DNA sequence: TCCCCATATCGATGAATGTCTATGTTGACG
DNA sequence: CGTCAACATAGACATTCATCGATATGGGGA
């Protein structure tokens, strides 16, 4: 179709629209606010383990019951998953009794680009 | 005895030695502790701006006076730079009156690898 | 030597955060 | 229905943290 001409690269970047690579220029206050929220979400050991559990799960998704063994109580797990969701890193979907979490598409690439640049 | 014979390659990687890509497997508690500390350091807007200011500075380094304009007091800037240093993200060196900060080598690549994998 | 500038440290304080127990909600299954 | 399992929410509590003003440190120049 006609709009197939738009650069797909731009659409990809729009999912995590924020900010040039950290090596390009000093971030503005707004950019820093938004981006720091993502790093902050990964800045807790329990959350980082939960995130890596989801990110490494077969099929790209995991139900809470499969990743809850991180040494804290069930409500705490739920609380951390909520934080990761609010930060835009995870998405969740209920299917029957279970709730499945998956990594929000392009988050990994987007954050990676912040650190290492477009290359 | 002579355990000084450890491989230098390992020492190099030891700068950011931690952890496979987040998509590979669930991190151990220890790995998560260490890695989360890095993300946490970037999880504050002021610190993130300071870090990007240093990372994007010409010559790869910046004196504090060049990056202090982030909207907080001078002691607060100093405090955040210390945190970034403790997290292993920045290094500092005094030259005359000024103190210069630079990004610790391999930090950007190391953290990028965590997110996007070796590719 | 004395002052000034750049940066670090100290101590205090209010806000944010991680954790828990208790309880609510939602769907599956007799 | 009633009950159970999976998950979320609410409230409380202790700890951590970001920030500030005051002060210390340390080098350069007059």
Automatic annotation (TrEMBL), chains A, B:
<dbReference type="InterPro" id="IPR011991">
    <property type="entry name" value="ArsR-like_HTH"/>
</dbReference>
<dbReference type="InterPro" id="IPR036390">
    <property type="entry name" value="WH_DNA-bd_sf"/>
</dbReference>
<keyword id="KW-0805">Transcription regulation</keyword>
<dbReference type="Pfam" id="PF01022">
    <property type="entry name" value="HTH_5"/>
</dbReference>
<dbReference type="InterPro" id="IPR051081">
    <property type="entry name" value="HTH_MetalResp_TranReg"/>
</dbReference>
<keyword id="KW-0238">DNA-binding</keyword>
<keyword id="KW-0804">Transcription</keyword>
<dbReference type="InterPro" id="IPR036388">
    <property type="entry name" value="WH-like_DNA-bd_sf"/>
</dbReference>
<feature type="domain" description="HTH arsR-type">
    <location>
        <begin position="27"/>
        <end position="119"/>
    </location>
</feature>
<dbReference type="InterPro" id="IPR001845">
    <property type="entry name" value="HTH_ArsR_DNA-bd_dom"/>
</dbReference>
<protein>
    <submittedName>
        <fullName>Transcriptional regulator</fullName>
    </submittedName>
</protein>
